[in-house]
Amino acid sequence: MSRVASRKDRVPRGSVKGPGMMLSKGLKRKREEEEEEGKEALAVDTWWLDPGHPAVAQAPPAVASSSLFDLSVLKLHHSLRQSEPDLRHLVLVVNTLRRIQASMAPTAALPPVPSPPTAPGIADNLLASSDAALSASMASLLEDLSHIEGLSQAPQPLVDEGPPGRPTGGAPPSLGALDLLGPATGCLLDDGLEGLFEDIDTSMYDSELWAPASEGHKSSPEDGPGKEEAPELDEAELDYLMDVLVGTQALERPSGPGR
Amino acid sequence: MAGAGGGGCPAGGNDLQWCFSQVKGAVDEDVAEADVISTVEFSHSGDLLATGDKGGRVVIFQREQENKSRPHSRGEYNVYSTFQSHEPEFDYLKSLEIEEKINKIRWLPQQGAARFLLSTNDKTIKLWKISERDKRAEGYNLKDEDGRLRDPLRITALRVPILKPMDLMVEASPRRVFANAHTYHINSISVNSDHETYLSADDLRINLWHLEITDRSFNIVDIKPANMEELTEVITAAEFHPHQCNVLVYSSSKGTIRLCDMRSSALCDRHSKFFEEPEDPSSRSFFSEIISSVSDVKFSHSGRYMMTRDYLSVKVWDLNMESRPVETHQVHEYLRSKLCSLYENDCIFDKFECCWNGSDRMVERVQYFKL
User: Which intervals carry biased composition (Basic and acidic residues) (chain A) (predicted)?
Assistant: First the structure.
């Protein structure tokens, strides 16, 4: 079999560069240099790298530095901005952020030594918005992927997604962007979507086309996850998208020696 | 192709010496992204080594027969076969590109002359057949040596084609494509001891396949919460038991390992055993969870133990004891004081693999891919 020519270099991740340089960015930075750097400066407090203790401080630190919090928020937003977030990275960052926030919140009442520059209320808002962004992103992922699940998964109970038409009262405002438009049912997307697909023939490997009745319901997931708001789709666009999808199905159907 | 390195950590004794036997590929900084190795796997007998890279290619190395005149030299590995396993795909529904990077390769137990392996990227698993051809037939009746068809009316006598030796040719052909069963990124595949089924695991689900059937898979583990806002844990690795075809384990990002028995129910959401070591309060930090995340889990050949790899250590567990591991080996304890920096540059999220050697003495494989 012939080799494929190497592809054009993509932008490498992070700061890992050459042999043995995996710690270059962190290790080589001196403390006096940190203050000169801008937003990326990590003000590593003394109790983090106490040279007397090879392990981290004996007692768990009471308060995290604000820069650690900021760094975590940055990582969270960076992760959410990916077209397809790495779920493991995302949950680890979120859990770490929650730990940091939990340690920062109680110190509002104590003498600020050291006190985070942002008040705990703001930290709460930041995390809430992170949560909202996370939930929005998660809901967006869920929305897009549940559509695929309905097509390809083995018999999967749909009831775990919750009943359709759940009232929107408890949802954060940012989920408004995901509201189902078009032939609106008025329900929020993530839980309502599963119920809408129950009548669709989900067998990918039959040659039947999708039931026409389902066309109207497909407007939101077919918009593509990258858009923050789902524009209204008219009939012509829906038909076009259907053709593309059906055409894709035909192309992807396995054939040849694999069968 | 970028080289990968190895390290060693023998269990119970320091009588093993480790060194690089061979380095394959470019040992400089100028390595194309597509050539970076993303996974390696020995065949069961060790005579073949398969590597997968970010460009979707699989390169198989074969160990040369040991030279009788140099009995003490280890067999060298040379390229045996190269093929393009996965191509980048475009998911039209999500407007996303699916990477061709090979995440895992697993060999099937050898049953004939041909060798089979499973290779997977984020979404699709493929079964490849690797076969040798060292003979070709000559003396066909209906076509001449150039391959041109002969006029049947001109054939006056029949002959039997004879097999003649030729230069060894290794062919790789895709036999099965298992697609469209994973919404999240596949991180593990594991062939069952029944040699008929295998599992594939992504961040939230584990599916069971039959090697002959590509249009259907069964979901056996599902940890996706009803509300994604409640997601706090993902699956990081999964493996079948080497002898009991109904038993599998899967590890999580919180450092726990769950053992499941498929006989208990169709959906193994309830584990049979739960392995977790209590956190040491003296070393607790904000990064405790990240470094406890298990990146690999492997059963011993005996099936009595399993080995897990987290960021700083390798642990050996007795399947009969869930409360704590029987052995813990610190791999790079010196990094513990630098966790903050490693968090900053994302190195703390790197994943390592581990494996047992043939006699179940432990071997640890460090896989930083850009050496």
Answer: 1-12, 215-230
**Residues of A whose CB is below 8 A from B36:** none
* Structural domains for chain B: 181-370 (2.130.10.10)
Residues on chain A touching B236 (C-beta within 8 angstroms): 88
Question: Which of B343, B352, B367 to probe the A interface (max A CBs under 10 A)?
Answer: B343
Task: Provide ipTM, 2 decimals.
Answer: 0.86
Mutation for testing the A interface, residue in B292, B344, B348, B367 having most A CBs under 10 Å: B344
Note the pLDDT tens digit of each residue in B27-72: 666 778 888 999 999 999 989 999 999 999 999 999 987 766 666 5
Residue environment code for A189-199, b if the CB has 16+ CB neighbours within 10 A, otherwise e:
bbbbbbbbbee
Specify the pairing of strand B305-309 against strand B188-191: unpaired
Tokens of B354: 């581990």
Q: Minimal Cα–Cα distance from B77 to chain A, Å?
A: 19
pLDDT for residue B356: 87
B345:A25 CB<8 A:
yes
Q: Which chain A residue is nearest to residue B295, measuring alpha carbons?
A: A88
Residues of A in contact with B283 (CB under 8 A): 55-56
Q: Do the chains contact at B286 and A54, CB–CB below 8 Å?
A: no
Q: What is the mean pLDDT of chain A?
A: 54
Q: How confident is the model at residue B14 (pLDDT cuts 50, 70, 90)?
A: low
Residue A141: name the closest of B224, B188, B157, B189 by CA: B224
Q: Where are the domains of chain A?
A: 63-104
Six-digit token pair at A14?
């992070």
State the smallest CA–CA distance between residue A111 and chain B in angstroms. Answer: 22
CA separation, residue B296 to residues A70, B214, B252 (Å): 30, 26, 10
- How many alpha carbons fall within 13 Å on the CB side of residue A129? 8
Can you tell me which residue has the tokens 């940091």?
A100
* pLDDT one-digit tens code per residue, B292-344: 999 999 999 999 999 999 999 999 999 999 999 999 999 888 888 899 999 99
Interface contact A6-B32, CB threshold 8 A: yes
Answer whether B229 touches A (CB < 8 Å): yes
Side-by-side strand order, sheet with B273-275: B235-240, B247-252, B257-261, B273-275
* Distance, CA of B39 to CA of B34 (rounded, Å): 13
**Over residues A97-120, mean pLDDT:** 58
- Rounded CA gap, B200 and B181, in Å? 9
Residue of A nearest to B254 (CA): A92
